[in-house]
Amino acid sequence: MYGALMTLQEISQFLLYARLSILILIKHLGKVPECEFSLDKMIIIYKNRKYIYVGVWNTIFSLAIFQILLHFCPVLHYQVILFITFLIANFQSHFTQRKFVWKSKKNYFVEFAQFLLGSVFSYMINVVALAILIRITTIRLIYIQSVITICLLAFSYVLHSKIIFNYKN
């Protein structure tokens, strides 16, 4: 039931929704006030855009792993697949955010432990939301996971920018 690959039409619809979500995020996070131009604001906008681009890559990577595991491991429960995806995607996500967005110089292992702790909180929200939505809807699992992932983006941005990578606005 969960293991079927997405059809081309479903992939097309998913990419359309993902694109619209990205455009909305870019519009709200990257908007420059017309009458104010300051170096600080430009740096914040630049960081936000880089976070969005890296976030889009990380989201696609995570959802692709989730879909691949659903397809090739149909005997695994979807929550086990979610956990495996969580483990793989977190290493990749931390690396790309640290290197390309925040350019952090903190101790790698301390920072990764903080990142993982914050990600565990997001993961727990994801587990609960997925369990509830899978029971009350007839929507395909990959779509439910995509919506949950998009909903957690704002929380993740605040968590990463203010706490883990300690970026000062």
**Terminal residue distance:** 46 Å
Helix fraction bin: over 70%
Sequence of secondary-structure elements: HHHHHH
- How would a textbook summarize the main sheet? none
What structural class is derived from the secondary structure elements?
Answer: mainly alpha
Uncertain runs with pLDDT below 50, 5 residues or more? 31-39
Mean pLDDT: 76
Write the layout of secondary structure elements.
Layout: H1 8-29, H2 39-72, H3 78-102, H4 108-136, H5 141-151, H6 153-164
Written description of the protein model:
- The protein has 169 residues and is an all-alpha fold.
- It has one domain.
- Helices cover 79% and strands 0% of the residues.
- It contains six helices and no strands.
- It has helices at 8-29, 39-72, 78-102, 108-136, 141-151, 153-164.
- Helix 1 runs antiparallel to helix 2, helix 2 packs antiparallel against helix 3 and helix 2 (39-72) runs antiparallel to helix 5.
- The chain is globular, with a radius of gyration of 17 Å.
- The model is unreliable at 31-39 (pLDDT under 50).
